[in-house]
Amino acid sequence: MSMSTQENSVTARLARWALGCAVRHWPEETRPWGLALAAEIDETASAFETVRWSLGGIMFFLRSVLWSGWRWMKLPAGGSLSGGPEGPSILPKRSRAFTAAVLAAAAALLALPEGREAIRTVLASWQEYNWQDYRQSDSDARTLERLAIRAGKEKDASTLAFVALSTTDPKRAVELVEHAVALDPGLIWLYSASSHRPNYAPPREEWLSRKARERKRCAPALPTCASYRWGLRKKSVRQVNKT
Amino acid sequence: MGLRIRLSKQTLAVLDALLGRAGQWQHGYSLSQSTGIPSGTLYPILMRLEKLHWLETRWEEAKTRGRPPRHLYRLSGTAREWAREEIRAAQERRFWKPAEHEA
User: Fold this and answer.
1) Is B53:B79 a contact under the CB 8 Å cutoff?
2) CA–CA distance, A180 with A158 (Å, rounded to integer)
3) Tell me, what's the pLDDT at A2?
4) Distance between CA A151 and CA A149 in Å, rounded?
5) What CA–CA distances, in Å, run from A6 to A104, A110, B66, B98?
6) Is the Cβ–Cβ distance between B24 and B34 less than 8 Å?
7) Are A64 and B48 a contacting pair, CB within 8 Å?
8) Is the pTM of this model over 0.80?
């Protein structure tokens, strides 16, 4: 065999160069096999054969790198908390693959919206409670909106009242209050209750005048409001769980 | 009987090629030529066979100056019997048959 015919081919030279690079970086455990493969490239009869041989070698190189990497991952890693200079390790050493799996699971948890929300909730619980800084989570807002839509369809004034008192969107609260009171005039006290929280629009003129007319219905507003919210919250959670 | 392993069609072809010139040393390129197996598949097979002690290897000094030494392969004495048995078994269950030019 001779390489004279393809010696000057740019493609063949490129293939040789690529295989040479692979051999230089070949993992130590299988390096003799890489050298053996590379030594045969001089025997190829054509540029096409050279390229084919080189590509095969590069594939073998990649497999060797992966295999070597996997072996490295399986090795136990981590500092040992030994009982003394020669004492046994207190904690068992885990493989690098195990560590990588734990890190991947943690990263996946952070990538999930539920995971991020859980972290936000925990962080929020560490901060001093302040209505001004209150931020409703996206999933809470979505759940409330679903409740409101369903309650609107079913003409469920109580649930509408609950959502009106729970939502952080002032415009939506006004809509829901009006809808709830339209369905059940007994819920007129919502006119007062819904505007107690910060960032909420003050009660409308027509609401105030109606409250003045129906003073008796509004009297128990605040205590009723509180009990209503907690009672309805339980009811709504049950409804959400059912769906 | 020695160690039984699951052999692929390519491994059987390599064994067949090595058996064809039993006792003689062969180069990787000539094995690739006779079996039609590309280098990326051939060398992992040779590596595995050597790990199983089926294959004997040695380095050959370069005949031309400036060329690297070449690797040579042949089946070990006991592996020849095993290889024949494996090939026969594969042919019996019609899993593999020798290439026509080798038959």
Assistant:
1) yes
2) 7
3) 47
4) 5
5) 48, 55, 18, 32
6) no
7) no
8) no
Contact yes or no for A95/A76 (Cβ under 8 A): yes
Q: In this structure, what DSSP letter does residue A77 have?
A: E
Q: By mean pLDDT, which of A24-28, A98-102, A205-209, A215-219 is the weakest? A: A215-219
- Within a 10 A sphere around the Cβ of B79, how many other Cβ atoms? 23
Mean pLDDT of B68-76: 94
Q: Tokens in use for B63?
A: 């005949």
Q: Residue B62: closest CA among chain A residues belongs to which residue? A: A39
Judged by CB atoms closer than 8 Å, whether chains meet at B68 and A56 is answered as no
Listed by start position, the domains of chain B span: 9-92
Quick check: B3 pLDDT over 70? no
Q: How far is Cα A58 from Cα A45, in angstroms, rounded to an integer?
A: 19
DSSP bridge partners of B26: B73
* A window 8-27, beta carbon within 8 A of B: none
Domain ranges of chain A: 10-77, 136-242
Token pair recorded at residue B4: 């039984």
Average pLDDT over chain A, rounded to whole? 79
For A19, the token pair is 């295989």
Q: Are B35 and B13 in contact (CB under 8 A)?
A: yes
pLDDT value for B9: 93
**Most confident of the following: A129-133, B20-24, B49-53:** B49-53
What average pLDDT does range A214-235 have in this prediction? Answer: 54
The answer regarding whether domain B9-92 maps to CATH 3.60.120.10 reads no
Residue matched to tokens 């004495």:
B77
A155 close to A164: Cβ distance less than 8 angstroms:
no
Q: What ipTM was predicted for this assembly?
A: 0.88
Q: Is the Cβ pair A43, B29 closer than 8 Å? A: yes
Question: B44: nearest CA in chain A?
Answer: A60
